[in-house]
Amino acid sequence: MKVHLHRSNIMFCYYSSLLIIASLFVPLSQSLTCPLVLKTNAQVERRLLNEGFHRDLETAVYLSSPEDLQSCLVLVKEVLPPGAYFDPSQLRFLKPFGGPDFYIPQMINVETPEHFSPRILAYFYVLPKPLNHGRWMVNVTVPVHFRYHRARSGTSHPLEVGVRLQHPAILLQCEDVGGDVCTPLAQLEPCPPSGYNQCEWLPVHTFSTSEAVMAVIPVGNTDLLDVVLLTTTCVTAGATLLILVTLKKKKIS
Ligand SMILES: *[C@@H]1O[C@H](CO)[C@@H](O)[C@H](O)[C@H]1NC(C)=O
Questions:
Q1: Would you call the peptide bond into 113 cis, given omega within 30 degrees of 0 as the criterion?
Q2: Which ligand 1 atom sits nearest the alpha carbon of residue 58?
Q3: Nearest CA to ligand 1 atom 3
Q4: Which residues approach ligand 1 with their CB closer than 6 A?
Q5: CB under 8 Å to 40, separation ≥6 — which residues?
Q6: Which of 84-98, 134-148, 229-243 is the least confident region?
Q7: Pocket of ligand 1, candidates 43, 57, 141: which has the most ligand atoms within 8 Å of its Cβ, to mutate?
Q8: Which residues cross the membrane (predicted)?
Q9: pTM of the predicted model, to two decimals?
C-alpha cells in the first residue's frame, strides 16, 4: 500500500508537469501554424561556370511545399564577399534578354581591389516554374566577377586565394497563400521588382547537398617585383640605345 501510494504520487507529479509543459507550448504552436514557412523547403544547388576573373554563377533552387506556390515570387538574397561583385549595369543590360529583376542597394566600384572593397548585398526576384507535384524551381544564372587581390610574397604565402560564395537565403512573397497566420513570421526586405520600399517576405528553410562554390584567384608575387623592374629598365634602356644608334647611322649615311 505504501509503495502504491508512493508510485501514484510520482505518476501524478509526472503527468502534472507534462501538462504544465504542454500548456506552455500551446500558445507558441498556435502562432506557428503557417505551413508556407514551416512545410516549405528550398534546396539550393550552385555552380560557377567558366574560368578566370569573370564567371557565371548558376543558382538552382528546388522548392517543395504542400502549398500552391503558383502565386509566389521568390527572393534570392545574396551576400558576396569583398573578393567578388555583380556589375549592376551588366545585369541591367541582360534584363531584356531574360535576366532576372534585381536590386543592389550599394554603389559598386568595379575597379577596386579586394582589400578596398565591401561585401555586397544583392536581391534577385524570380517566378518559380512548376516541376512535378508539389515542386517548383527557379534558376538564377548571372555573371559574377572576382577582384584583384593585393600582391604578396610568394616565398611565405601561396599565390592563389579562394573566394567562397555562401549559399543565398530564400524568401517568398505569395498572393493567396500564407495569410494572417504567417504575418508574425514575415521579415522586411526590399520590394520587387527594383527594391523601391520594404515589403514583407517569408523566409523558408534552405538546405544544400553541395558546399559553397569557390573561385581560385591568382595573386601577384611581390618577390618578382625586383626582377620585373630590372627587366623593364634593361629593355627600355636597350631599346633607347638601339634607336639612338639607328638615328646616328642614318645621319652619317
Ligand atoms: C539555368 O539557366 C542557364 C541559362 O539560362 C542554363 O544554361 C542552365 O542549364 C540552367 N540550369 C538548370 C539547373 O536548369
A1: no
A2: 1
A3: 141
A4: 58, 60, 139, 141
A5: 63, 64, 65, 67, 69, 172, 204, 205
A6: 229-243
A7: 141
A8: 227-247
A9: 0.78
Determine which helix (DSSP H) or strand (DSSP E) holds 162, and give its type and residue range. Answer: strand 160-165
| pLDDT, tens only, 122-169 | 999 999 999 988 999 999 999 999 999 988 888 888 889 999 999 999
Stated as kind and residue range, the H or E segment containing 225 is helix 225-252
- Residue nearest ligand 1's atom 1 by CA: 139
Atom of ligand 1 nearest to the CA of 60: 13
Question: d(Cα 242, Cα 138) in Å, to the nearest integer?
Answer: 63
Q: Which long-range contacts (CB under 8 A, 24 or more apart) does 192-196 make?
A: 192/73, 192/75, 192/101, 192/125, 193/101, 193/125, 194/101, 194/102, 194/103, 195/103, 195/104, 195/105, 195/123
Nearest Cα residue to atom 7 of ligand 1: 141
Q: Which atom of ligand 1 is nearest to the CA of 98?
A: 5
Cell of 72: 509566389
Backbone angles phi, psi at 157, to 5 degrees: -135, 155
Nearest CA to ligand 1 atom 14: 139
Q: Tell me the three cell numbers of residue 136.
A: 517548383
Condensed to tens digits (0 to 9), the pLDDT of residues 8-67 reads 555 544 555 544 445 444 445 544 578 888 889 999 999 999 999 999 999 999 999 998
